[in-house]
Every structure is written in C-alpha cells, then in structure tokens.
Structure to design on (579 residues):
C-alpha cells in the first residue's frame, strides 16, 4: 500500500534517544503492544494530536537515520575553524567535495562493520563517504525487533497519513561502538514553505534602503557569482520577462541543475526576482525537489527518504563557493538530536566548501510548531520552537523586519515584523539540540532569562519581511500572475543571498577571499569596534515572545545590514587578521 504522505516526508523525522541495553523482540499482540497502541505516536520531544489508523503491516518498509561514531570529528571541527580564522594559514582555502569526503567522516571499515550487524537484523544501510550518518531501511517487523518499538499508521490534524513508532527506539548493544544515536521512526514530516503575501519596493528602493548602491556604482553586479536555490515549486519564464522589462533589469536566465521543471509558484519566483534585483549578473541555479512526484515514484518511504537526503547532499557537494538561499523549514521540536546532527554535518560540509548558506527562520513568529497542532490552538510553550535547518550552526539564519524609508529612499527605520492577530511574524528563538557556537558572542547573546542553557539562538541577522514593505515582485496569484509586494522571511533570505554575491565580488576584486560561512565574521564585526557601522540595530517590537533589545536579540539577531559598510568591514576583517 502506498502511503499518502504528501508534504510530511521531505525527510524522515528523527529523535535523539540512545538507550543502552539489549534489544528484546516485541510480539505484536502482547499486552505491552496493546497498551502502546492506545497512546499517541512518539514524535520526539513533543507529542501532537493524531488519529490512530491501526498497525503497520509487518512487511512494510520503514527507514531511519543512524548517526555514526566519527573519530575525525574533533579534527574536522578544528580544520573548519581554521578555514574561517583570518590569522590561520588555512584561512579561505576551502576544500573540494572530493577532498572533504576523503579526509573526514567515519572510516569505511567501521561503517562496513555496522552494516554487517544491521544486515543480520534484516536491515540494509546506505552511506556516502564523508557523511556522519547513514540511512537504515528494513521491514516494520525487522525494525520492531531490532529497535524495540511498535509501529502504527496515524492521520495528522491536517489530514495527512504517516507511520510512527510508539516510543524512542533502543539502539542494539552490538551497534554501540559504531553508532552514537538513532532517529525516531516516523514519516511524520511536514516542511513549511515560508510566506508569500500590494506594489512593493523597486530595486532602486531596495538598493538605497540597505546602502547597496555604492557597490553597484563600483560596477559590481554579481558577475562571476552563483546563487543556488532549493525550491519546492517552479517558475514561468514569462513572469521573469515581465519583471525585468518593467523594472529595467537585465534578462533573467535561471538554470535548473537538478530536479524536473515544475508548475510555477510564487515562492520560487520571489526568491529569484529578489536576488536578481540586487545582483542582476549573478548566475541563478535551481535545485527543484518535486515532493509529489518523488512520492509517486518511490516504492516506499525509505526510498523517498534516501532520495531527498541524497538530493540535499548533491546540492551542497556540486556548488563549492556558491551562495545558497533556502526558504523552507521544519518545526525542530519533534525531530530530535539525530536529525539535528545530520543537518549539522551537511552544513558543516557546505562551510568547508566555502559556501554561504542563508535559511529563513519562518513566519509563525516564535511558535514554529503551531502549524502542527489543530487549527485554532492558542500559542503555548508546547508550540514555542525554531525551525530546522535555520538553527543549524553552519548556516546564517535570517529573520524579518518591517522597513521604513526616508524621503530620499534611504533607510529610515526598522522594527521587528509581527502580526499578532494571525500569530505571524519573524521566527526566532533557542535551539533544543545545538550548543551555542564559539563564534556566537556579543552584547545580548548570553541571555540567562530566555536562554539559560546557553544554546544556539537564531536569527543571526534580519532583513525586510513585512508584506507591507516588501520588494516589488511579479508572481502567480490565483489563476494569473500579478504585481505584489513580497513578504515573509522567504524574502529576507534571498535579500542576504544577493547582498553576499555583491560582497564576494567586491572582496575578490581586492584580492581577498569570498566570505563563505559568514557568521564568525558577522559576530566579530558586531561585537568589536570597526571602521564602519555595519548593522542597523533593531530595538522595537517582538516576535510575539522574544523582544527586540539593544545588541543581539532573538527577534532580529544582530540587525539588518548597511551593505557598503559591511563590505568594507569585511575587507578590514580579512586584512587585519580578524581583529
């Protein structure tokens, strides 16, 4: 039976639980199983309402992720730090994908031993050299025996069907030397594509608001730079032609590098149009992930899981030195440590390849889990959360503001983007799974009230996200394409991506390195005296839970950019050895 998972399975949803003990077989009709069957499904650190549809058939293929013991982890972390430390001789000497896979990750021999153990349990494993994780696939019966769970089908509040185990899986003792954690067993996974909303800011307004114009006046237009987009819908070339003709921009000629041509969607068109307005000569590359199409092709959830994880790996490995913009995310809370570890590994690899990854923080304000509970549920501590992959330590998480312009079309003021009546606004908050990275320092970062455990917090930076002050875009709305004002943190991520393309071009013209992973430099510049004022500090508003304050805060991060100043500060940062 083909599962009806729709958007719930862009990837498997995971948990971090590792319990030391001996795996004992579970009988499907045992009293323990019967008691578990009446409970809600185990969805990591959170439990959400779901209708029980009955047991999963024993032969149904399931999948999960195992995080592998990596003896090279400390060396890999040290080498990554060196790549982004201006005083290091390795600064800016980014790796190739082949070199990255050869130098880091678990040994092939150790992975082979883990595979042999899994094979004896009736479970196969797919692994790519260099990765800290593998995908384990087997029948429901094999999983229940190996990992001490019972599995059932459920229907979510949104009407989508998924399977889930009744509790955290137990890692068999034989795997302990090779595996550090195991994911939860579930196909409950529903990504949120962050918002599209009238007029909007023209390119001239946008360039003026964030002081981008001086870079453009130097003749910088993104030439030689590549911006990559992970997209879940398509585009119409005729819409791009209308957009560029009216706004006096060069033609747009995006390239679909992976995935099929898909139906035009507002998300993809906004992402590309915003970057093109800022860096019109940058190469625009699209990785289209057709969720519905991949579900139809997949013979099981396990195959679908492998397809989408390989797809994201491919995007990272094929684009060294590129800028990546992503406008989707998943409520972090139910996903667990194992998925968090896998995403960290993926984006650490992107950093080692010299890529700059910008990810939206979401449009449900501080309550990223709110869409996963029945409609009308009030925001609460249960739904207070941040999205993955925005909080992965290797990405730059972009929040959203409401922008006001002065009479000369320059920056006047910004407040945090919030829409309390709809529980909408910029995402931000504290990660459950990642410790605060060493580079995340400065006024406001250490927050004993809102972040007493000292975890990774987001956003890192912000940009315009309020539809009332959005960028002028031409996108599909209903049955036709129309002019509109962009909005949501889906807009702030491509704003930063376009800015970074120009800054890379500026730095390379000075015989310096492209920025790659930008966060170490951003936090250093914000926390120490610099030649120029690189950020607008946003101190008004909240994301319905975390207030904006002077310095860093979890509503606006470090603030929004003065791009000309930031470019010159980054130049000084590199020339001064990070001082």
């Amino acid at each position: 039976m083909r599962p009806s998972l729709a958007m719930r399975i862009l990837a498997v949803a995971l948990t971090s639980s590792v319990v030391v003990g001996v795996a004992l077989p579970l009988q499907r009709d045992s009293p323990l199983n019967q008691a578990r069957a009446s409970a809600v499904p185990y969805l990591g650190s959170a439990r959400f309402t779901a209708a029980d549809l009955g047991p999963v058939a024993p032969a149904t293929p399931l999948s999960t992720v195992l995080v592998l013991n990596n003896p090279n982890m400390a060396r890999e972390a040290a080498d990554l730090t060196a790549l982004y430390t201006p005083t290091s001789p390795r600064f800016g000497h980014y790796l190739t994908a082949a070199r990255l896979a050869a130098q880091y990750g678990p040994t092939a021999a150790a992975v082979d031993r883990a595979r042999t153990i899994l094979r004896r349990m009736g479970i196969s494993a797919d692994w790519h050299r260099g990765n800290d994780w593998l995908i384990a696939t087997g029948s429901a019966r094999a999983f229940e025996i190996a990992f001490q769970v019972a599995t059932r089908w459920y229907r979510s509040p949104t009407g989508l069907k998924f399977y889930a185990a009744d509790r955290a899986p137990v890692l068999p003792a034989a795997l302990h030397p090779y595996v550090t954690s195991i994911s939860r067993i579930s196909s409950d996974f529903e990504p949120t594509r962050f918002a599209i909303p009238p007029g909007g800011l023209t390119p001239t307004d946008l360039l003026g608001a964030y002081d981008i114009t001086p870079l453009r006046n130097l003749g910088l237009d993104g030439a030689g730079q590549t911006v990559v987009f992970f997209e879940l819908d398509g585009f119409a070339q005729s819409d791009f032609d209308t957009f560029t003709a009216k706004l006096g921009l060069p033609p747009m000629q995006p390239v679909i590098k992976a995935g099929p041509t898909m139906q035009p969607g507002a998300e993809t068109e906004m992402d590309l149009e915003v970057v093109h307005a800022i860096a019109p000569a940058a190469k625009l590359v699209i990785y289209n992930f057709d969720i519905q199409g991949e579900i139809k092709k997949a013979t099981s959830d396990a195959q679908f899981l492998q397809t989408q994880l390989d797809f994201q790996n491919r995007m990272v490995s094929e684009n060294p030195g590129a800028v990546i913009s992503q406008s989707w995310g998943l409520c972090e809370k139910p996903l667990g440590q194992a998925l968090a570890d896998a995403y960290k590994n993926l984006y650490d690899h992107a950093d080692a390849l010299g890529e700059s990854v910008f990810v939206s923080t979401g449009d449900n304000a501080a309550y990223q889990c709110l869409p996963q509970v029945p409609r009308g549920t009030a925001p609460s501590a249960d739904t207070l959360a941040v999205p993955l992959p925005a909080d992965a330590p290797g990405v730059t998480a972009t929040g959203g503001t409401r922008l006001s312009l002065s009479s000369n079309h320059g920056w006047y003021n910004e407040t945090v983007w919030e829409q309390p009546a709809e529980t909408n606004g910029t995402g931000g908050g504290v990660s459950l799974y990642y410790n605060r990275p060493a580079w995340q320092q400065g006024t406001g970062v250490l927050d004993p009230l809102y972040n007493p455990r000292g975890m990774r917090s987001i956003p890192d930076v912000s940009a315009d996200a309020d539809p009332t002050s959005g960028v002028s875009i031409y996108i599909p709305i209903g049955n036709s394409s129309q002019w509109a004002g962009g909005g949501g943190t889906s807009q702030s991520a491509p704003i930063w991506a376009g800015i970074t393309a120009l800054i890379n071009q500026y730095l390379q013209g000075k015989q310096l390195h492209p920025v790659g992973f930008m966060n170490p430099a951003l936090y250093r510049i914000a926390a120490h005296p610099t030649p120029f004022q690189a950020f607008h500090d946003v101190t008004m508003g909240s994301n319905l839970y975390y207030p904006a304050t002077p310095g860093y805060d979890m509503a606006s991060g470090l603030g929004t950019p003065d791009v000309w100043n930031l470019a010159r500060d980054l130049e000084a940062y590199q020339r001064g050895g990070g001082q």
Remarks:
- Residues 1-39, 193-198 have pLDDT under 50 and may be disordered.
- DSSP finds 15 helices and 26 strands in the chain.
